[in-house]
Design a protein that fits this description.
By secondary structure, the chain is of the alpha+beta class. It has 2 domains: about 110 residues, Rieske Iron-sulfur Protein (3-layer Sandwich), CATH 2.102.10.10; about 210 residues, Naphthalene 1,2-dioxygenase Alpha Subunit, Chain A, domain 1. About 20% of the residues lie in helices and about 30% in strands. The strands form 4 sheets. It has an 8-stranded antiparallel β-sheet with strand order 12-18-17-16-15-14-13-19. A 4-stranded antiparallel β-sheet has the order 2-3-4-9, with no helix packed on it. Strands 5-6-7-8 form a 4-stranded antiparallel β-sheet, with no helix packed on it. β6 and β7 form a beta hairpin. Its cofactor is Fe cation. Homotrimer. The two-component system 3-ketosteroid-9-alpha-monooxygenase is composed of an oxygenase component KshA and a reductase component KshB.
Length: about 375
């Protein structure tokens, strides 16, 4: 008997299978590359195990299983010597390809002296690692696109934040189809919302207007933010690039927002947010840098709003939806492709799917709510 069948009197029961112990196939961002280029090994807990990241003498960033195959010592507690990471226990030297290159006190290295090495990519100031439970290398067509401005003096440098979230990472991916939560959780006002899924890419296109009941009015002389346009795409299971434009009275502010994560284990993940801002005549270098920091803090507060929901909600595989909730089941079908063997990827997981949500009803109701909030606030301000 299923949980739904166990319900009585037509009450819909929540169904939830155990979270998968398998981790998604694809590129995962571990953070800013520079963080790992300080001449020391670094520990990262990801994919249910401990990893060590180190930069070899040739400048390459390498990722290995953190535990030495000799006697089990933690390589992240060792030292970098030339192109190898040296074990703190017996000084076995491990290369970025996972092979033991040298044992100083031994005449020869055992033929089977190998450990797990992960394929890495250092791109746009970010370090990526490839995970595949089948052990295959990344196919050429599965890529992370280059990010406009990430290496340009016309843009700011990355403002980067990260937090640990104690839930399964499917929760964060669900947001790509969830228009309504932007109003109720993040206090924004979407007016246009569309999703496109195709191959390994899932896109959300959203336009919105400002909420005068939720955002303080601009101070004297400052431009007022009127709305925003967002084109956000997950490239694979965990790395989203959002071309995000804020529309002000006298200018458009162009930014690129990163929303990325990697699993620590089945019930926790590291959530990254990063942003760069394009400089302009109206937003020169110093002002753009300050705006990037301000937006970075604002976006982190938005993620914290999500986290508060995730902390208290339950996992649900059979959500009860209304027609304005968007294509939740189609998104999860798309997401499933990363959790099965390549041979088991079905056409419906990767075929092109488009859905434009009818925003007529939400826009009408939300406009009334905003006006009611403003009227109540005005009445309260007149009360002695």
């Amino acid at each position: 008997m299923t949980a739904a069948e166990a319900g009585t009197d037509g009450v819909r029961a929540i169904e939830a299978e155990a979270v998968p112990t398998r981790f998604a196939r694809g590129w995962h961002c571990l953070g800013l590359s520079e963080r790992f280029k300080d001449g020391r090994p670094h520990t990262v807990n990801a994919f249910g195990q401990k990893l060590v990241i180190f930069q070899s003498g040739d400048g390459r960033l390498n990722v290995l299983d953190a535990y030495c195959r000799h006697m089990g010592a933690d390589l992240s507690q060792g030292t970098i010597k030339g192109d190898e990471i040296a074990c703190p226990f017996h000084d076995w030297r491990w290369g970025g390809d996972g092979r033991c290159k040298q044992i100083p006190y031994s005449r020869r290295v055992p033929l089977r002296a190998r450990t797990s090495a992960w394929t890495t990519m250092d791109q746009d100031g970010l370090l990526f690692v490839w995970n595949d439970p089948e052990g295959n290398p990344p196919p050429p067509e599965v890529t992370i696109p280059r990010i406009e401005g990430a290496t340009s003096d016309e843009w700011t440098t990355w403002v980067w934040k990260e937090i640990v979230v104690d839930t399964n990472c499917r929760e964060v991916v669900d947001n790509i189809v969830d228009m309504a939560h932007f109003f109720y959780v993040h206090y924004s006002f979407p007016t246009y919302f569309k999703n496109i899924f195709e191959g390994p890419v899932a896109t959300q296109i959203m336009k919105g207007v400002g909420r005068p009941d939720a955002r303080p009015p601009a101070k004297n002389g400052e431009p007022q933010m009127r709305g925003n346009t967002s084109v956000a795409s997950y490239h694979g299971p965990s790395f989203m690039i959002d071309d995000l434009t804020y529309h002000y009275d006298d200018m458009d502010l162009h930014s690129v927002l990163i929303n990325a994560h990697y699993p620590i284990d089945a019930n926790s993940f590291v959530l990254h947010s990063g942003i760069i801002v394009r400089r302009s005549d109206k937003l020169p270098a110093g002002a753009a840098d300050a705006m990037a920091v301000k937006l970075g803090d604002f976006i982190l507060r938005g993620f914290d709003q999500d986290v508060q929901i995730w902390k208290h909600k339950t996992r649900i595989d059979n959500p009860l939806l209304c027609e304005e909730d968007g294509p939740v089941y189609q998104l999860r079908r798309w997401y499933e492709q990363f959790y099965v063997d390549v041979a088991d990827v079905r056409p419906e997981m990767v075929e092109r799917f488009e859905f434009e949500l009818d925003t007529t009803r939400p826009t009408e109701v939300w406009k009334q709510e905003v006006e009611a909030n403003l009227a109540r606030r005005a009445a309260e301000s007149r009360t002695p």
